[in-house]
Design goal:
heterodimer, A: 265 residues, Rossmann fold, five-stranded mixed β-barrel, B: 279 residues, alpha/beta, five-stranded mixed beta barrel
């Protein structure tokens, strides 16, 4: 596996020079962040040896290098999901390449459904912990030599982000993210179950990346955009357009929060 | 990705070649191989799924049988000896079977599965309708690229056991002076039996019954726009405290299960034809 990461990194290094301390996975809600990246150059996933290719319509498929707040960042515009048929190893391939590029901080975002009845569509949530319901892990036979980070979601970054949100009058919940396999949305019984298990929001991504990020020693920050409500007693039929619309409303806030946060890293 | 549709349509076209004259089924009944169908059903010919789809299942591995049947004025497609995930059949194959039904013209599926009951108010030897499920199988037929010609990428599951059909079912059952029960079905892997701790867990998360086969069928059906009615034949209990005090021998447990399944089957057959005609 290591040879595959190295190959990809070698190709990328021809176009992206220097150390990139900050890695960002532009999940749903962070798409607008692309406009904040200065001096950007990008590479299509398809051109990178061994890189998986994105199949979901709302994800693009480019690796972007540039600067935010004067800091070098490497961003994935388009991520991979377990429900597309990728293994967890494939989903998390780019993180190993990020490690080789010098990444120390990882910011990852996602869209999710609210389980906590105090949350509403278009709210933002900072992930404090997660529950893995993929029934699999990317860490089987993990051989990479690195010191794991002490937490899945860095306490320091959680505090920093909360502070940043406060300073910028951006409302920010904190809570537990649970990931199901998808791609089907959850049944009422499933929403009730995952709430009972302690989750505040439910989605289909992020956890595989976070598991690897911790093993690679990244300080990780997880941000969720709530795009729909999974309250079992009042469950409405989910419409993809409405979900995308809700993400669009939350995006400017999340983008601003992320830019301000990066300035403090 | 048009390939799934092309594939399953070819399976359906093969099967439709064997249709009796004027046969237009819009309803399918999916059961295990040991299900006994009610008297009053007329069976015409049948064809093995392994003939239509040799890449999916071979005859020796236990192929489902498509039986062309009729009851009263209703044509129906019977799928006997369903595909089971616990036999190592990939989820995609179970999906293929359901999608094949779609291209056979089916708009509604009645899926009858053997279950254990977690709700102490239910009983072995009876049947229970499913109004929702929890998927604990760790897999589903939709993982992989989506074929937009079959269904959307992110199917909504808020009404996966069609509430309109369930209303009709309830009315029919009550009019026939039978007991109407419904509950949440927990989809688990099997085939090994459940532990007490697992029984407690499944109950805790809201389960009334638990089985091994209905969930992937439901997910594929919802994806393909087929309305779904689920019925559990209760053959055993999964009451944790009772399991802790189990004194029966393994042979006796199996024998009891078999006889309870038969009893539930017989009970269901009292209203099954009525149900089929009402839906």
């Amino acid at each position: 596996m290591f040879a595959a990461y190295k190959q990809a990194h070698e190709y990328i290094s021809k176009y992206f020079k220097d150390n990139h301390p900050i890695g960002i996975i532009l999940g749903t809600g962070l798409g607008g962040l692309v406009n904040e990246i200065k001096n950007q150059t990008n590479i299509d996933y398809g051109d990178i040896p061994n890189f998986p290719v994105s199949t979901v319509e709302t994800h693009h498929g480019k690796l972007i290098s540039g600067k935010i707040g004067g800091k070098k960042i490497i961003a994935m515009q388009g991520r991979f999901h377990f429900y597309e048929g990728y293994s967890h190893k494939q989903v998390t391939f780019p993180l190993y390449v990020m490690k080789l590029m010098g990444v120390k901080f990882l910011i990852v975002s996602n869209a999710c459904g609210a389980l906590n009845p105090q949350f509403r569509k278009t709210d933002l949530m900072l992930i404090t912990s997660h529950v893995n319901f993929h029934f699999t892990t990317p860490l089987m036979n993990f051989r990479y030599n690195a010191t794991p980070a002490s937490a899945f979601y860095s306490k320091r970054l959680i505090d920093l982000c909360s502070q940043t949100a406060l300073e910028n009058s951006i409302g920010l919940h904190k809570g537990v993210y649970l990931s199901v396999q998808g791609p089907n949305l959850e049944t009422r019984a499933e929403y009730a179950m995952v709430r009972k298990l302690g989750a505040d929001v439910v989605g289909m991504s992020t956890i595989p990346e976070v598991l690897v990020a911790r093993q690679l020693g990244f300080e990780t920050l997880g941000l969720s955009i709530i795009t729909d409500e999974g309250f079992p007693d009042t469950l409405k039929v989910a419409v993809l357009e409405e979900i995308v619309h809700a993400a669009g409303i939350a995006e400017p806030r999340l983008t601003k929060l992320t830019v301000k946060l990066i300035g403090k890293l | 990705m048009g390939s799934i549709k092309e594939r399953v349509k070819s399976y359906a076209d093969y099967i439709k070649n064997f249709y009796p004259k004027n046969f237009k089924p819009s309803l399918a009944v999916v059961t295990d191989g040991n299900f006994v169908y009610p008297d009053g059903m007329k069976f015409n010919n049948e064809v093995l799924f392994s003939e239509a789809a040799p890449d999916v299942i071979s005859k020796t591995d236990g192929s489902p049988k498509f039986i062309f049947a009729r009851t009263g004025n209703t044509d129906l497609l019977i799928v006997k000896n369903r595909l089971h995930f616990y036999n190592g059949i990939p989820m995609q194959s179970i999906g293929d079977l359901i999608y094949t039904l779609k291209f056979c013209g089916v708009k509604k599926i009645i899926s009858i599965d053997e279950v254990g009951h977690l709700d102490p108010r239910l009983d072995e030897g009876t049947y229970c309708f499913v109004h929702d499920h929890i998927n604990l199988m760790g897999d589903n037929p939709l993982i992989g690229p989506n074929d937009n010609q079959l269904g959307v990428r992110f199917p909504d599951m808020s009404d996966c056991y069609n509430s309109g059909l369930l209303k009709k079912v309830k009315k029919t059952v009550i009019e026939n002076k039978s007991v109407y029960s419904e509950g949440i079905y927990i989809g688990i892997l099997g085939p090994a039996g459940e532990t007490e701790a697992e029984a407690r867990f499944y109950r805790e998360i809201g389960g009334a019954i638990a089985g091994y086969s209905m969930v992937p069928e439901n997910i594929a059906a919802v994806h393909a726009g087929i309305k779904f009615v689920g019925i559990g034949l209760i053959s055993r209990h999964l009451l944790a405290d009772k399991m802790a005090e189990e004194t029966r021998s393994e042979t006796l447990i199996i024998a009891d299960r078999k006889s309870a399944l038969k009893k539930a089957n017989t009970q269901l057959n009292k209203i099954l034809i009525e149900l089929i005609q009402e839906l």
